[in-house]
Write a structure and sequence with these properties.
- The chain is of the alpha+beta class and about 475 residues long.
- Helices cover about 40% and strands about 20% of the residues.
- A seven-stranded mixed β-sheet has the order 8-7-18-19-20-17-21. It has a five-stranded parallel β-sheet with strand order 12-2-1-16-22. Strands 5-11-6 form a three-stranded antiparallel β-sheet, covered by helices on one side.
- The longest helix has 20 residues.
- The termini are close together.
């Protein structure tokens, strides 16, 4: 028998993907009753902002791609249009061979200007002959067949280990906290995969892409005045969905007419009956929840590993750092054996942060790579001290911070291992066979904010199709 009651959808996970899904569900179907269930005390996942020395400073990502439309469009929809900002500098360096050297123009580490590469001193002069030889190398097997390989294997073969270790590796470390020899070319770095497919020479293809980009006046990155961490609560409010924090989801089961969501601790568990479900959780908990309904997809989803990372942020008196912090920061190749993997001079990068307190300079350092958690086992005081020591060595300054904050993100970044695209395709195909169920988040199509939003929109399309194709029955 048909019922006139409103259809209901549960969004499991209140990170940016889950909140974007809730917003999209309500925008497309205002009649839906949408509830977001988040296990922690706040929404936002790894997008969070808090005070450091009285300044709002992001504890997770502080920028999003501006040339992809999804995240910027969501920012507008959330009412933050007037607070969209762009970096005032993108010049950065690489701390290697005993100095912070200017990062030459690259496409994800593939050099586009050999003269700038020579001037930087990042690679040994003997490497240049190997790099130049790429112009005449035959197309690789990966290019010829479309097969997936690791980024490190391809770049090492084509341009040599120094380009791989000192340019590509530190850039990947900033995105995935992973390793070039393990990350998928096609899923992890589609920019490089596109170069391989387009031209027999990586250098020629990268230079061509860079030339096309020079005419694009749209800024590459965007931020939000007051921190990217402002975006999740704004999206939550704009969605009109019910937001339940402190609501840990323990189980998910199919019913005759929809889904049963199991919530809360064992002794006080509750259940909620809904028509559709969007699972916007990391791979491991998502796999556990869909295991009974989609066993084949759950098994493949469980294969995705994650890296843990930490951010040590410092606030310095401006006069104490003088001119020791040029540009927006620097990357650190793991081959150099340092503890930090990058440093961002946030007050130089974002004018709103410098304007908020002209006497302070905020610097954020990042630590941690996949399967390298030893440094993260230090307590907060020791971890901050190690990060500060590296910062001093890199810049030559000896300033003492007026405030310090350490943020840890356990299991934060999914690793796009070789074969990731096929793995995700298998998961999605299996989930698509179950009505009114979808998955989304950083584990699927990219770890950046726009990619997470795009995955949420794809999930919403799938769930709505399931709801539309099934008449709601209620006894």
């Amino acid at each position: 028998m048909s019922s006139d009651r409103a259809q209901t959808v549960a969004v499991l996970g209140g990170g940016i993907a889950g909140l974007a899904a809730a917003y999209s569900l309500r925008r497309q179907r205002p009649d839906l009753e949408v509830t977001v269930y988040e296990g922690s005390s706040v929404v936002g996942g790894k997008l969070r902002v808090s005070e450091l020395a009285g300044l709002p400073v992001d504890e997770g990502a502080e920028a999003m791609l501006n040339r992809r439309p999804e995240a910027v469009a969501l920012t507008h929809a959330a009412g933050l249009t007037d607070d969209l900002v762009h970096p005032q500098t993108l010049s950065s360096g690489v701390w290697t061979r005993g100095a912070v050297r200017p990062l030459p123009p690259t496409v994800m580490g593939i050099p586009t200007d050999l003269k700038a590469l020579v001037r930087s001193g990042i690679v040994h002069p003997s490497t240049l002959a190997r790099v130049q030889a790429d112009r005449v190398l035959p197309a690789s097997a990966a290019a010829a067949t479309g097969a997936d390989v690791s980024v490190g294997a391809l770049v090492g073969q084509r341009l040599g280990r120094e380009v791989r270790d000192r340019l590509v590796e530190p850039l990947l470390g900033g995105v995935y906290a992973g390793h070039a020899d393990q990350l998928s070319l096609r899923a992890g770095v589609p920019q490089i995969a596109a170069l391989v497919d387009r031209d027999r020479s990586l250098l020629a293809a990268a230079a061509e892409q860079a030339e096309r980009g020079r005419g694009n006046r749209v800024p590459v990155f965007a931020g939000i005045r007051g921190g990217i961490g402002r975006l999740p609560p704004a999206v939550a409010e704009a969605s009109g969905a019910v937001i339940r924090t402190g609501a840990m989801v323990r189980g998910l089961a199919r019913t005759e007419h929809g889904w049963r969501v199991l919530l809360g601790p064992t002794r006080e568990e509750t259940t909620v009956e809904v028509d559709g479900v969007v699972v916007a959780l990391p791979a491991s908990p998502a796999s556990r929840l869909i295991r009974d309904a989609v066993p084949a997809g759950a098994a493949r989803l469980a294969e995705i590993e994650y890296a843990s990372v930490a951010l040590a942020a410092f606030a310095f008196r401006r006069e104490a750092v003088a001119d020791r912090l040029p540009g927006s920061g620097f990357l650190v190749p793991p081959v150099d054996g340092r503890t930090i993997k990058a440093a961002t001079f946030s007050s130089h990068k974002w004018s709103w942060l410098a304007d908020a307190d002209p006497d302070l300079v905020v610097v954020r350092t990042s630590l941690g790579r996949h399967r390298e958690e030893r440094d993260l086992q230090r307590d907060d005081v020791d971890l901050a001290a190690v990060a500060l020591a590296d910062l001093h060595r890199a810049t030559g300054m000896d300033a003492t911070p007026v405030a310090t904050r350490v943020t840890r993100w356990g299991g934060a970044l999914p690793q796009y291992a070789v074969g990731h695209a096929d793995r995700v395709a298998t998961v999605r195909a299996a989930v698509a066979g179950v009505p009114a169920l979808a998955v989304c988040g950083a584990a699927y199509d990219g770890v950046g904010i726009p990619a997470c939003v795009a995955s949420a929109e794809k999930a919403v399309t799938q769930v709505l199709a399931g709801l539309d194709g099934r008449e709601t029955i209620r006894s």
